[in-house]
Design a protein that fits this description.
By secondary structure, this protein is mostly helical. It has one domain. Helices cover about 70% and strands about 0% of the residues. The chain contains ten helices and no strands. Helix 3 runs antiparallel to helix 4, helix 4 runs parallel beside helix 6 and helix 6 runs antiparallel to helix 7. The longest helix has 26 residues. It is globular, with a radius of gyration of 16 Å.
Length: about 170
């Protein structure tokens, strides 16, 4: 395995207190995630970068990023893509809840193990979106629509490296 997957996400309380992420860095990462979702929005296998960012910050900074942030991000995604208002909010709040439920377990795994745990979280979140779409539109998106969760889980290690604040990256070297 590569060194990328061997690194663990340092999510201990001591690490957060020594190297807390700035609010501007958190905001910038969400802005980047929204831009990437807009750019790759039409590609069916493209991951939901906002969901990955929510998972990362819910694990790393649970006092700053939580259910309210998930709800607001969901409303913004619905407004951006013109979908039923609240559909992404339901998915993101569920994703946030599942991430909180796994928050004690996930940091003990390497990035590959975390990816395996994040895959079902992303699939459940995407399932909520699909159920709302089926309810309102009655259109089945096809099984390939779930590839977005698979690519999201595959990109988890790289995304974690990108979102980790620079102060923490330099301190861990």
């Amino acid at each position: 395995m590569s060194g990328l997957f061997k690194k663990r996400l340092d999510d201990s309380a001591e690490s957060r207190m020594e190297h807390p992420a700035s609010k501007s860095w958190i905001f910038f990462t969400f802005l980047l995630a929204f831009v990437l979702c807009i750019v790759f929005g039409e590609i069916f296998w493209a991951p939901d970068f906002v969901a990955l960012t929510l998972i990362f910050w819910t694990l790393r900074e649970p006092d700053r990023v939580g259910f309210l942030t998930a709800f607001i991000c969901g409303i913004l995604m619905d407004a951006l893509f013109g979908t039923v208002l609240g559909q992404q909010s339901l998915a993101y709040v569920t994703l946030c809840y599942l991430t909180f439920a796994l928050s004690r377990r996930l940091p003990s795994f390497d990035l590959f193990g975390q990816s395996l745990h994040i895959l079902p979280v992303l699939l459940i979140s995407q399932l909520f979106v699909m159920l709302v779409r089926l309810w309102f539109d009655g259109l089945w998106p096809g099984w390939e629509w779930f590839l977005a969760s698979v690519t999201g889980a595959l990109l988890w290690g790289i995304w974690t490296k990108l979102l980790t604040p620079r102060a923490l990256r330099s301190a861990s070297l």
